[in-house]
Amino acid sequence: MTSIITILILILFPFLISLILLVAKTDALRGPVVYIGAAVTAAAAIFFAAISFGKEPAALVAGGRISEIISYAMMGIEALLALLIIWLGIKYKKYLASILALLQCPLLLWFELKHGHDVEVSHNLVVDNFSVIMVLIIGIIGTLICVYAVSYMKDFRHHHADVQDRSPFFFFLMFAFLSAMFGIVLSNNLVWMYFFWEITTLCSFFLIGYTKTPEAIKNSFRALIMNLLGGLAFVIAIVVLGYFAKILELDFLIKNGVGDTSGLVIIVVTLLCFAGITKAAQMPFNSWLLGAMVAPTPTSALLHSSTMVKAGVFLIVKLSPLLGVGSILDISPGFMVVMVGAITFLLASFSAVSQSNAKRVLAYSTIANLGLIIACAGLGTPEGAWAAIMLILFHAVTKSLLFLSVGTAEHNIGSRDIEDMDGLFGRLPRLATLMIIGIAAMFLAPFGMLISKWAALQSFVDDSNVWAILLICFGSAVTLFYWGKWLGKLSGIVANRQNTQDRIHRGEWFALGCHAFLVIAISLGFPFISDKVLLPYLSGVFGGGLTQEQSLALSSDNMFILVVLVALIIVLPLMFYGRTRKRIVPLYMAGANEGDNLTFRGAMDRDVPVSLRNWYMEGIFKEKLMNKIGIITTCIIFAMSLTYIASLVTYFIKMAGGEA
Amino acid sequence: MEFSIFSVISAVLYLLLGPFIGGLLAGIDRKITARMQGRFGPPILQPFYDVGKLLEKEAVTVNKGQDFYVMACLIFMIITGTLFFFGENLLLVIFMLTTSALFLVIGAFSSASPYSQIGAERELLQMMSYEPMVLLMAVGLYMVNGTFRVSEIVSHGPLSLKLLIGIFIGYLFILTIKFRKSPFDLSLSHHAHQELVAGLKTEFSGRTLAALEVAHWYENVFLLGFLFLFFANGTWYMAVIGVVVCLIAYFLEIFIDNVYARMKWQFTLKSSWLVTLVFGGVNVLMLYFLKAFSLIGN
């Protein structure tokens, strides 16, 4: 009972707060509402984790009268939202959006009204350890971003005086987003999940279009159309599954689908994975996430870390037991997911090299990491799923930290270009330290992301997935390069820089500090999470009795070594950084250093200022070319999957004809 | 955690003797290089004299940060090497090696000096060039031995070289980059005729520079240790052959160093990736097919 009430609080309370924020027009009112809303939501998420912790997966909210009413209410809201999309599509002349909404909404309504009653749904919501992890991510990281946004939006208005202030609407969307995300990760009934899924699509659409500039409108519609495409696949999956198999429950699908070769499961899983791929911004759909950068930074932080794209990978990781790649010639849904993920990982990493805009680097890195996550999930092994869930967790915390610190840096140095972050260590030492923690945690051993990458690589090797291994090896090498040069830029100690960090708001410091603490805490505590949370979950879904050594890439003594190394890498700088009694001397430069480390005496006895630039290798890692290759290769893979499905469908029709 | 006497002994030996072997190799390198160039060359122990001299230099630095990074590089290099000789997981060792190398790069970046920054960026390029091959080497060894644990590969794995000739050649190729030899000595070089000589280490001096030298000695020994894995199968004669091959490979690298001029960075990246793809990739693919048709065990 307590869990049901907590779930109700998780889903409804943020929505209630969002409604209040819609009418709270002043900063003085908004601040406290957001803080209280965030605190209560986070507390509810932690409480929920505490009571669900260590328990068997629990099925909640049985079918029945109340659930039926809820389902009808959802249907009504869905119809209204579809009408809204159709109207917006016509208003802004983006007819494709209208057409997609016009296709999927009636299809779902027809199915629910005509055949919905034939399907018995016994559990609409389900709680397992994976959804607990997701609830914690959404409830803690998501709300911290909202807290950060309060201070950020004040500055944003200041910096963008020309943009109409729609802060109430902005905060409404942020909290509504959290509600919908809680809904997705707790739903078991696919129709319910689809309802929340579409709400996140719409929320992100409005958030991206926040500034209403032509670019923002264009990008928001791109995001909408791509996600509606995924939504359409989702609806078709629901209809096929409900109509032919009379199933609408995710856990039921997974339990009965393992080992099922009837073809129906394959079709449904392919469609659902396709929906996940669009939402997770994999190639060829990566452009919507890059376009999302036009929105205020908290939006990007939210989309990239705890919501939206994580919904996409969440679904695919859930379906992981049904995926898997048999041999090098296999073109099952597992093959589609692994290949699209691995190709995206490689090409998005390549594209990141040539970017100097910090947010674009972060965006490509997100796309790449999501690729790695779904590739791991596509293997359909417990090892792979372990790596995928760990990646989700580490990535959410770290990426959010990075986005927020870039946002703060942007407001203080007036640029989000990495080139302008020269000597950030002198100007905003504390912020630079936080950013360095974030970057190091993204790609360096012994921090979290690398631990998961290690597990990922081993999963691919164990699965003998040769193509994916090659893509991952090259992709990680490039990852090293683009993070390394950014890290170098930040750590540079440039002379005569004024310290301006006092200008940063307290609310931003609070959110940033909590993030940094979480990054380190999770890196230190991950063996515990693995042992107590992931192993039981994986044993449950992949067929019980898994021991650590069987199911994981990392043995416990490796984990122990890693934790010790994390502690060491944190303690060393605290003890030794900057403690030198050596005499400070000027730098070496080609001509005589003028003594300030910023100019030297060049030819003709002139003073030449020194400027340092990063290396982008545009000649080799061409962004446009990478995207083109990505679109072509992933489309070929989708075409292969489509042929596979088509052959299954024709087989069905033949069988049906034969029986008749 | 398995503790075997052998692991402990080899880890302790590495800790104590690593820098001496590394320093001696460096001395031999300078002697052979000099002979190849028609010079007499310094005494074999010259690298040790050099480090001794560096330790006595006046303590100066360009900022308060960089010494820390170089020390961290040394510490993590020693930890990584020790983990390797203790027989730990190969991937762990490779990732920690990267962390150690990155500390050095950040140290060079932190001075905000033009020369060290160019060196640092080139070092990152070199890391990006060799990393895929290093990872593939680990993958190949795993596919043949069924484990990433160095101790198990050494003690009872099969003779890996038989099935990993492509990967062996690929690793030899990128070893030239790791040893900072021409034609790939872009970030920092021992040859005075290059356009950028000190590069990465331009702003390091005195004890810091000495620490960097020692870190390189440790690193070189353990890079040769990787090579040894291809030969180890638990028998004493293959162990001897392994050590001999390591020495031959080292001589080969010196030879290549003196035969080639420095190439452009594009060549470094493209050639090493091509070699990785052709030798490493094809080898892994071949292993896959052998496994798929169960021609080899595990």
What topology does this entry show?
The complex is a heterodimer of chains A (660) and B (298).
Chain A (H helix, E strand, L loop, with lengths): L1 H22 L3 H26 L5 E5 L2 H27 L3 H20 L8 E5 L1 H31 L7 H20 L3 H19 L5 H32 L4 H8 L6 H16 L7 H5 L5 H10 L2 H10 L14 H21 L4 H21 L3 H32 L10 H4 L1 H15 L4 H15 L3 H26 L14 H36 L6 H4 L4 H21 L6 E2 L7 E2 L5 E3 L5 E3 L13 H37 L1
Antiparallel strand pairs in A: 1-2, 4-5, 5-6
Helix pairs in contact in A: 1-2, 1-6, 2-5, 3-4, 3-7, 4-8, 5-6, 5-12, 5-16, 5-21, 6-7, 7-8, 8-10, 10-13, 10-14, 12-16, 13-15, 14-15, 14-20, 14-24, 15-16, 15-20, 16-18, 16-19, 16-21, 18-20, 18-21, 21-23
Chain B lengths: L4 H32 L9 H10 L4 E2 L4 H21 L3 H21 L3 H32 L4 H7 L8 H14 L27 H24 L6 H24 L5 H28 L6
Helix pairs in contact in B: 1-3, 1-8, 1-9, 2-8, 3-4, 3-8, 4-5, 5-7, 5-10, 7-10, 8-9
Q: Cα distance, first to last residue of chain A? A: 50 Å
> How many structural units, i.e. domains of chain A?
2
Rg for CA atoms of chain A = 25 Å
Tally of DSSP β-strands of chain A = 6
Given as residue ranges, the uncertain stretches of chain B (5+ residues, pLDDT < 50) are none
Secondary structure tally, helices of chain B: 10
- The counted number of beta strands of chain B is 1
Largest interface (CB within 8 Å) is between: A-B, 67 and 67 residues
Biggest sheet of chain B, in brief?
Answer: none
Widest β-sheet, arrangement of strands of chain A: 4-5-6
Mean pLDDT of chain A: 88
Helix content of chain B: over 70%
- Work out the strand percent of chain A: under 5%
Question: How does the overall form of chain A come out from the CA principal axes?
Answer: globular
Q: Report the average pLDDT across residues of chain B.
A: 90
Backbone shape of chain B: globular
Q: Which H/E pattern describes the elements of chain B?
A: HHEHHHHHHHH
Structural class of chain B: mainly alpha
Write down the Rg of chain B. 19 Å
Q: Give, in order, the helices and strands of chain A.
A: HHEHHEHHHHHHHHHHHHHHHHHHHEEEEH
